[in-house]
Amino acid sequence: MTEVYKILIGGRWEKTAELLEVTNKYSGEVIGSVPLADKKTFEEAIKSAQDGFSLISGMPAHQRSKILQKTSEGIEAHKDELTRTIAIEAGKAWKHAKAEVERAVQTFKFASEEAKSIHGETVPLDAAVGGEKRMGFYLRFPVGLVGAITPFNFPLNLVAHKVAPAIAAGCAVVLKPASLTPITSLKLGQIMMEAGLPDGALNIIIGSGSTVGNWLVLDERIAMITFTGSPPVGRNIKEKSGLKKVTLELGSNSACIIDESADLSLAIPRCIIGSFAYAGQVCISVQRIYIHRKIFDEFAQRFLDRTKDLKLGDPLDPQTDVGPMITEEDAQRTESWVNEAVSGGAKILIGGKREKNFYYPTVLTNVKPEMKVMVKEIFAPVVCFVPFDNFEEAVRMVDDSIYGLQAGVYTSDIEKAFQAIKGIKVGGVIVNDVPTYRADQMPYGGVKESGIGREGLKYAIEEMTDIKMVVFNLQK
After folding, report:
1. Residue 1 pLDDT > 70, yes or no?
2. Distance CA 420, CA 447 (A)
3. How many Cα atoms occupy the beta-carbon half-sphere of 314 within 13 Å?
4. Predicted confidence (pLDDT) per residue in 392-411, tens digit
5. Which ranges constitute the DSSP H helices of 344-403?
6. Are strands 7-9 and 12-14 parallel, antiparallel or unpaired?
């Protein structure tokens, strides 16, 4: 018997008429069933969120902070259970699932601290003619109801990055987790309720993007949509969302430059993790590596030698480095893109093999800039090696992308580091590390087709609050 879960509405755990089966991404076995929301369920969630907003927005900051701190502690207390759930339903290797849980502990802790620091500032009105004898300041107020739509690849920490700042700001949330990985979110909901979250402040409903996702985007009672996913869906959300606030964390084909002065003993192991962790299903995975021609052969050989040692297998095995992709269809798409590149002249240095929903870590060379494996987000354990002769050329090639999330550059030359910082239009440049690096309190987000807005607790709270200006006329 598999467990039948319930969804969270207004502080109650509810059933619905229709169930969705959730599978173990390694074995394919059904591990549980979750209720699918219909329009009636959705309406109940919205009304509950309205009630919850009146409670959470009126709560003193120190109380919201305490709830978030207790949530952080609750995640820590359930670390093994949450790690196992992520490994099973997302197919994420145990070591990476555990790291995600540990990050979520920090994310809620950071949110707890930021909840006590939401403030405005004074405005010197007498700097303007006509502003004499006036005092001005602004305050921040919660936007209202937040619709959060989250992806499968970080079913705990990317949920945390939407729910935690919303609660810190005093907003109520209607959360739609990914249908492939909903159980982790439901367990987080239980932890948050036990931490003292008011009824209705968090509502979790499950369904497809075409139903629940679309209802959230179109509903005028929702003040803000925060979404992580693909650029086409993000574009659709922006077009349909009207005057709602929108934060979109979208895709990338993230690149890394390996300058001739780079420390390869530092760069190679990090590039391997950046390329293949969670089977490359991370929006800031390393997809393109530009390597100075003088060190190209050495970098490639050492990279391949270490890649050969990666262990593929059951995510529950602590020794596993690379687990399955989320679906067999995604692995088949990856196989198709690689085969298309090879037919166009690309060369496989390692990998290029699929077994059901496993795709082996793959390195390609002789790639052309217009190939799908270069210009689109492959979201798979595939990385392309490209040689360059001068640093300016490498910067130009990295920047030649429809995406702009993060980029990495390995160099011992500070001038080249700043050349990359200035020359690559992205949301973040990571010097002497891979673009896959993210600290949960830093501003995180992209430009171009990688999205709009920023996450990271302080910055997400700014997105989830409205400025209200106050002016006192002191003239008698």
Report:
1. no
2. 16
3. 6
4. 999 999 999 999 999 999 99
5. 372-375, 391-399
6. antiparallel
Any idea what the Cα angle at residue 277 is, between residues 274 and 278, rounded to 5°? 140
H or E element at residue 223? none
3-250+450-469: CATH class: alpha beta
Tens digits of residue pLDDT in 278-331 = 999 999 999 999 999 999 999 999 999 999 999 999 999 999 999 999 999 999
Report the pLDDT value the prediction gives residue 33, as an integer from 0 to 100: 98
| Angstrom distances, CA of residue 200 to CA of 21, 185, 212, 224, 258 | 26, 16, 18, 17, 50
Q: Catalytic pick from 89, 100, 114, 249?
A: 249
Please report the pLDDT score of residue 2 as a whole number. Answer: 85
Helix (H, G, I), strand (E, B) or coil at 372: helix
Per-residue pLDDT reduced to its tens digit, 90-101 = 999 999 999 999
pLDDT over 80 (residue 180): yes
Is the domain covering 255-439 a CATH 3.40.309.10 domain?
A: yes
Residue 181, number of CB atoms within 10 A of its CB: 26
Pairing of strands 447-448, 403-404: antiparallel
For residue 108, name the pLDDT band (cuts at 50, 70, 90).
very high
Looking at residues 11-28, what average pLDDT do you find? 97
Q: The whole model's pTM is what?
A: 0.97
Return d(Cα 45, Cα 50) in angstroms, integer: 9
Please name which of 170, 235, 173 lies closest in space to residue 205, comparing C-alpha atoms.
Answer: 173
Catalytic residue among 283, 377, 449, 462: 283
Does the annotation mark 3 as catalytic?
A: no
Q: Is 384 helix (H, G, I), strand (E, B) or coil?
A: strand
How many angstroms from the chain centroid is the CA of residue 383? 20
SS3 state at 426? coil
Q: What is the pLDDT of residues 355-391, one digit of tens each?
A: 999 999 999 999 999 999 999 999 999 999 999 999 9
Q: Which of 234, 218, 86, 216 is nearest to 160 (CA)?
A: 86
Say how far apart CA 157 and CA 108 lie, in whole Å. Answer: 9
Q: Are 295 and 264 in contact (CB under 8 A)?
A: yes
How far is it, in rounded angstroms, from Cα 64 to Cα 456?
18
Question: For the chain, which residues make up each domain, given as ranges?
Answer: 3-250+450-469, 255-439
Verify whether residue 171 is a known catalytic residue.
Answer: no
Q: Which of 120, 115, 171 is nearest to 470 (CA)?
A: 120
Q: Which tokens hold the place of 168?
A: 């810190």
Three-class SS of residue 472?
strand
